[in-house]
Each structure stands twice: as structure tokens, then as C-alpha cells.
Amino acid sequence: MATPPLDAFAGRRDQMFPVLGEDDIARAARFGTPRNYAAGEYLFRAGEPGPGMFIVLRGLVSIQQRDGLGHVVPVVREGAGAFLAEVGQLSGASSLVDGVAEEPVQALLVPPAQLRALITAEADLGERIIRALILRRVALIERGAAGAVLIGDAQAPHLARLENFLRRNGQPYHVLAPHDDASACALARQYANRPHEVLAVCPDGSILVDPEEHELARGLGLMNAQEQDQLFDVAIVGAGPAGLATAVYAASEGLTVVALDCRAYGGQAGASARIENYLGFPTGISGQALAGRAYVQAQKFGARILVPAQVAALECTAGATPALRLVDGRRLRARAVVIASGARYNRPDARNLPAFEGRGVWYWASPIEARLCHGEHVVLVGGGNSAGQAAVFLAAHAARVTMLVRGAGLAATMSRYLIDRIEAAANITVLPRQELSELEGDEAGHLAWVTWRDRDSGESTRCPVRNLFLFIGASPETAFLAGCDMVLDRAGFVVTGGSGRGELESSLPGVFAVGDVRAGSTKRVGAAIGEGAAVVAALHRFLEASAEKAAR
Predict the structure, then answer these.
(1) Quick one: pLDDT at residue 2?
(2) Rounded Cα distance, 436 and 357, in Å
(3) Cα dist. 30→34, 114, 502 in Å?
(4) Residue 434 β-bridge partners
(5) How far apart are alpha carbons 525 and 131 in whole angstroms?
(6) What is the pLDDT of residues 240-284, one digit of tens each?
(7) Given 373, 413, 442, 452, which is the most exposed site by the fewest CB atoms within 10 A?
(8) Is 498 helix (H, G, I), strand (E, B) or coil?
(9) Dist. CA 258–CA 235, nearest whole Å
């Protein structure tokens, strides 16, 4: 398999694979347990739950990437003073690589909980460790030789959907066309009598045929199906900017925290190609990068993050501890709940739209979609900042981008810097006062034609288009609150404040709302993060008052 060598990361190799000195090892020793391994013995295996971080005291360990098709790619050989882990070991996630003792090895094993304690207690050492763990995950993703193997045509819509899921969750994977690899070809022949778009091969060798996202997550060990008997201080519904900010600040202040998201961390912001007006990033940052840093930061402080995990209902019986019931039947109990579930993408009232979702209709623009529309004409619907960011991003890949805007222009809904960039792009055309009306497909069921209508003249335009991007806002994700008798506004957003309650507390005691799901909130990443930080003070006050009440 052709994979980028580690020399591609040579500029940061010393940061990726630092060697610990005697003083560093002595400081880390109180967090670990000595272990011995014979030559040929595995310290950890790809696809199996990782035991934590190893610090090599003596001997030599070979790190190699191995996928479910049996491909093995050497990564690095590590000796005394090296530490073996990547960012997944902060939470005890499944290992992405094999670690094999080339000779007798003595090592110090630091389990996930102790690894987090080490990083927090030893600030300087912890900084070096956390930087290395993150860079190693980035390298694994870039090399694309670990994790899932997706076998299918590069233009297959289901392949794009699975790639997006893995990319947004920071999981390495690689794609093989059946004719590009002998093992992939042989496997495709085995399933030739079963129509499919994608075969997903997990690191343990199991094969999934056109899996849904939760099925792939289960096969990769991403889903934590264990019962959570612990009574948490705070349960957070949603892992977008507001939810992750709440998790970081609450966990860093000693609260026990669990956060859940049904698809991926980062929320809608995670799909933004570039955020350029967020404080402290003058050159901009992708939503995925910003969310990924917050995700690691929350785990560093001990927050438990379950992704994917979907909440079916909030159980809020008067006088009882709140509980979240998941779609798989599990229950999570917490003294307080923060609703940060954000919003779901709005769908225009266009004929045949549902038939082409994931088959040419997209609600985000990432490098995966950019690959699908390289050199083509694409249509984008929307006039807000998310639409502007997507248009500018896609213009660098597509031959032409046509923006359909319901209003008279962009000035009322989009930041000036994005308008200027759109006006400067020769291949972006903005059509005001237009609305999507109908979609048509080809014989294979993929999007082929898009029709839109002029809102003033009623004239229709039918255009051959294979990829359509929709950025027309979102509606609050509050269906799971249906049985709670919680006060929502007419649009379904959670009403907070009033009647002696704090600004971020809902009508139910101990249940708070932050970010886009809250009525009256400013729909911006910075505002969502600010509310996530601010709600922690309110959580402390509520938990302290509850403890005093229980003590009386």
C-alpha cells in the first residue's frame, strides 16, 4: 500500500516522538504500573481497547499499522524513554496500531484515568505528551493505513457519507477501489451477488455491507454500549461548540461530566470549511479543527464523551434526579442537565428532495464533497455565513458555483468579508429572489437536474447539476423534550430565564440550555462557546443549593 512516510512529518518528528529523560520518567512513575513483555508479545493490538500509555524503560517496540485486509505498514521503532499512545488513549478507545515487542521489554503502563491525571498534574510534561498524542493521530489520518477500509467507487454517495462520518469524528480510514488492490478485488467478488455501494472492513476483519453510520461506529469500537451506572454531576446533550465548551469548563472545575452527540462532535460548526471571524485566529480555522481541539481538551480534563449516542427522551419527573434515555434503552442519570443539542438542517420544500439526500444533495461542504464536484457546476442554496463559507470553499474546486438566495441580496444575512470574497470570485454567481422547486435524477438514482423558480416573475430554470448544497438555516433539535412539559417558544427553541431563574436555566429546575437551541441566543460559534462557559457558574450554584437542601 502506498502511504506517506513519516518523513512527510519530519519537521515535527521531535514533537511527535520525544524521548523522556530520567527526571520525566520519575515524575510519571507514580501514575503507572511496571509491566514486562517477552519478545514477539503484543503490548496492544489494532481494533482492541487500548490499555493506556506505555513508557518504555528497556527494550524495543515496533509500531505498525494493520488493517482488516491484512496490510501491514511499519510506523516507527521505539526504545527506552519513548512513550507509546495516541490521543484515543485519553479515553481508552480502541487502538489504531499494533505495538509488538521486538525483544524483551520492560515498560510502565499508565491507564487512561491516570494518563489524564498525569497530564493535569505535570503541566510541562503533560504539554509535551498531549502535543505528541494529537500529532500522532493527525499522522495516522494523513497516512491513511489504519482504521476502516472502505471499498467502493470514489463517486459512490454512500461512500461519501461514511467518509464524512469518519472524518468528522477524527478517525483514520482509507478508500480502495475494487480494481486497485488484489485483496479488495477478491473481497468484492465474494459479494458480487449482493448489490452494494460500499464494503467496510473493520480492523478485526469483520465486513459490513453498506453500513449505516452507527453500524460502522460499532464495528470500529467507537460506540460505548456499556451501562453508565454513575450519577454524573452534569449530562450534556450535544457536542457542538456550546456542549464542548460546557464539558471543558465543567470538567476542568472538578465536576463529573458526560456529553453525548448522535453523530459527531462539532455540530454544524464542525462542517464549516473555514471560520475567519473567531477571536484569536486571524488566518481562520476550520470548524473541524476547532471542534477537534475542544474534544481533546474535554477528555483531557476527564469529561466522558459518547459519540455516536442519541438521546430519545429527557426524563424529568418532579422531585426525581433527571435522566437521559437513549435510543438503545440505556439511561444516564445526572444531577443537572445542559441542553446543547443545537439545530437540524432545514430542508426546502422542493419536489423529490428526500430521494437525493446523500446522493447529490449535501448539507455541508468538506474536502470529500469537493472531490465529488471537481471541475463541475454546482448549485448552492442559502445566503448566510455558512453558505458564504461553503461557496468560497467550493469555488476553489468546482468550475462554477451558482448561489440561489431567497432575499434581494446577501447584505442583510452575510458578513461583509464573505460578500467581498464572493464578489471577487470569478466563478461564483449570486441569483437573488430565487427558490428551489424540483430535483430530478438519472437511471442510477443520483441527482442529475435542478430546477429553481424566480419569486417575482415565476419563471423556472432547469439546469443539469450533480451536486446541490443546502445552507438555509436550521430548526431546534428538541424532539426529545416532548414529554417534559418544558417551556419552548413558538419555533421550538428552549426558553430560559425569568421567574427567578438564571439567564440560562429552563423552566425545569436543574435543566439548562445553551447555544443555538436556546431561544434568543446569537447563532454564532463564539456566542455558543461563551454560553457554554457561563453556564458552569450556574451549574455550581444549582448543585450547591441542591446539596444544602438534601443535607437539611
Answers:
(1) 43
(2) 15
(3) 10, 9, 43
(4) 454
(5) 25
(6) 999 999 999 999 999 999 999 998 999 878 877 778 778 888 888
(7) 442
(8) strand
(9) 5
Amino acid at position 375, single letter = G
**410: DSSP letter:** S
Q: How far is CA 175 from CA 150, 199, 436, in A?
A: 5, 10, 34
Domains annotated on the chain, with CATH:
6-143 (2.60.120.10), 148-219 (3.40.30.10), 231-344+476-551 (3.50.50.60), 353-472 (3.50.50.60)
- Type of residue numbered 480: F
For residues 314 and 322, is the Cβ–Cβ distance under 8 A?
Answer: yes
Q: Which amino acid is at 506?
A: S
**CA triplet 479, 482, 484: central angle to 5 degrees?**
130
Instruction: Identify which of 160, 131, 133, 136 has the alpha carbon closest to the alpha carbon of residue 146.
Output: 136
Please name the residue ranges forming H helices in 314-452.
367-372, 385-395, 416-424
Percent of the chain whose predicted confidence (pLDDT) is above 70: 97
Which of 311, 247, 284, 320 has the alpha carbon at shortest distance from 481?
Answer: 311
User: At CA 329, angle to CA 325 and CA 334, rounded to 5?
Assistant: 30
Q: How far apart are CA 223 and CA 165, in angstroms?
A: 13
Q: At what angle do helices 123-143 and 287-300 cross, to 10 degrees?
A: 140
* Tens digit of each residue's pLDDT (9 = 90 or more) over 49-81: 999 999 999 999 999 988 888 888 898 999 999
Amino acid at 413: T
DSSP state of 328: T
